[in-house]
Design brief:
277 residues; HAT C-terminal dimerisation domain-containing protein; protein dimerization activity; ZnF_BED_domain_contain
Length: 277
């Protein structure tokens, strides 16, 4: 709306000034300065809010990266900023810090864990100097569900058996060689090895889907993939927009002509409305 007012400023002035009853509503230069300052600060942020308001792809993992992007790029102090623009940026920065930095520990854990489990980001925005990477690895180790890793590895080995080959001289020596026995490792060691492999692997392209990624690598990272599936960190919505859309759908279902619907029927119709799209 602010963008539209600035774009049509001259037309608004002419229209309001043409009638004495509305001439007092003609925006002053102070009004235009305020609108321009608001537009300068908020316009670059509109695309970020649109991205985080979606519910058809993973959004919660991008909250911390977006906060870094907003602070370092969009709210960065510029030499051309007016005092009003500077004050608006400062108030936005303080509000974001209050919302995400000074809130409870549980919110931080969810945001950091979701970001870590998103192969597009991993440890990129974790502070190594504050041991956030080690703390995250410890949290993952403590909360990973128990799974049958041994049986999975055996089944993988059985599937990877090479085709039968004809007997040769080398096969006679192989039959008499002592096979190396792999030492058993604890769950913690296995998870640590899995975490190290996951962190060192290439990041996922931003155009790819993190949920599809974990579906494809569930044999490569059994503990991490089960953690993603069980606790569903990546399925949390970053904003309340999806909930608001759900309430809007319920409002469209319960109309004056259908006011006698029972609550159970409303729940069923709302569920079908959102899941049959």
């Amino acid at each position: 709306m602010v963008d539209r007012i600035l774009e049509q400023e001259e037309a608004i002035r002419r229209t309001l000034s043409s009638d004495w009853e509305t001439s007092h509503l003609v925006p002053t230069w102070q009004d235009i300065d305020v609108l321009q300052a608001i537009h300068t600060v908020l316009s670059p942020l509109s695309s970020l809010t649109d991205i985080l308001s979606a519910d058809s792809y993973v959004t919660v993992s991008a909250v911390i990266p977006f906060l870094h992007l907003i602070d370092k790029k969009f709210l960065k102090k510029e030499s051309i900023d007016t005092q009003l623009t500077h004050d608006i940026k400062k108030h936005i920065r303080d509000d974001l810090n209050e919302r995400y930095s000074n809130r409870g520990k549980d919110i931080k854990v969810i945001l950091k864990t979701a970001m870590f489990l998103d192969p597009q980001f991993k440890t990129k925005y974790l502070n190594e100097q504050e041991n956030e990477i080690e703390d995250m690895k410890l949290f993952i180790t403590d909360n990973s569900p128990d799974i049958e890793v041994a049986s999975q590895s055996q089944s993988e080995n059985s599937c990877d058996q090479p085709p039968a080959q004809r007997r040769c001289i080398g096969s006679l020596f192989k039959d008499n060689e002592e096979t190396d026995v792999m030492p058993e490792i604890s769950k913690e060691q296995y998870i640590n090895n899995e975490l190290d492999r996951y962190i060192s692997s290439p990041k996922l392209d931003f155009e790819e889907d993190p949920l599809s990624y974990w579906k494809d690598v569930h044999k490569t990272y059994p503990y991490l993939s089960n953690l993603v599936k069980r606790y569903m960190y990546l399925c949390v919505c970053a904003t309340s927009s999806s909930s608001e859309r759900l309430f809007s759908a319920s409002g469209n279902i319960v109309t004056p002509c259908r006011s006698s619907l029972k609550p159970e029927k409303v729940h069923m119709l709302t569920f079908l409305n959102k899941n049959l799209e």
